[in-house]
């Protein structure tokens, strides 16, 4: 995955409530009572410290509905 920092995490329609993302990064993802996964309100504070786990959750999602938005890469100076 990219080296750019994660700016936001979202879940698209189609979640199957498998709880894999919650198992990998419970500080970021929650699936309650077999409902669709949600990104927790305070998840952003974990985007740096749990970055690898968040990226793994997105890669391992069986229905590929986890979306990571990254910061724009700084323009190179010449």
Structure description:
With 78 residues, this protein is an alpha+beta fold. It has a single domain, classed as Alpha-Beta Plaits (2-Layer Sandwich), CATH 3.30.70. It is built from 2 helices and 4 strands. It has helices at 20-24, 51-60, and strands at 6-11, 29-30, 38-39, 66-70. The strands form 2 sheets. Strands 1-4 form a two-stranded antiparallel sheet. A two-stranded antiparallel sheet has the order 2-3. A hairpin with a 7-residue loop joins strand 2 (29-30) and strand 3. The mean pLDDT is 92.
Please specify the SSE layout and strand pairing.
Layout: E1 6-11, H1 20-24, E2 29-30, E3 38-39, H2 51-60, E4 66-70
Antiparallel strand pairs: 1-4, 2-3
Any key phrases for this structure?
single chain, 78 residues, alpha+beta, Alpha-Beta Plaits, two-stranded antiparallel sheet, two-stranded antiparallel ribbon
Summarize the structure.
This protein is an alpha+beta fold and about 80 residues long. The protein has helices spanning about 20-25, 50-60, and strands at about 5-10, 30, 40, 65-70.
- In DSSP terms, counting alpha (H) and pi (I) runs of 4 or more, how many helices? 2
Largest sheet: number of strands, sense, barrel closure: 2 strands, antiparallel
Q: Briefly note the CATH topology name.
A: Alpha-Beta Plaits
Instruction: Name the beta content range.
Output: 15-25%
Evaluate the radius of gyration: 13 Å
Tell me the overall shape: elongated
Count of distinct strands:
4
Give the domain tally: 1
- Class computed from helices, strands and strand pairing: alpha+beta
| Name of the CATH first level | Alpha Beta
Q: What distance lies between the first and last C-alpha atoms, to the nearest angstrom?
A: 26 Å
Which percent bin holds the helix content? 10-25%
On the 0 to 100 scale, the average pLDDT is 92
Oligomer: single chain
């Amino acid at each position: 995955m990219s080296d750019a920092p994660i700016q936001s995490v979202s879940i698209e329609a189609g979640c199957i409530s498998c709880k894999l993302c919650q198992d990998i990064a419970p500080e970021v993802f929650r699936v309650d009572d077999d409902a669709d996964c949600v990104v927790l309100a305070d998840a952003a504070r974990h985007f740096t410290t749990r970055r690898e786990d968040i990226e793994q959750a997105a890669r391992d999602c069986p229905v590929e509905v986890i979306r990571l938005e990254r910061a724009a890469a700084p323009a190179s100076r010449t």
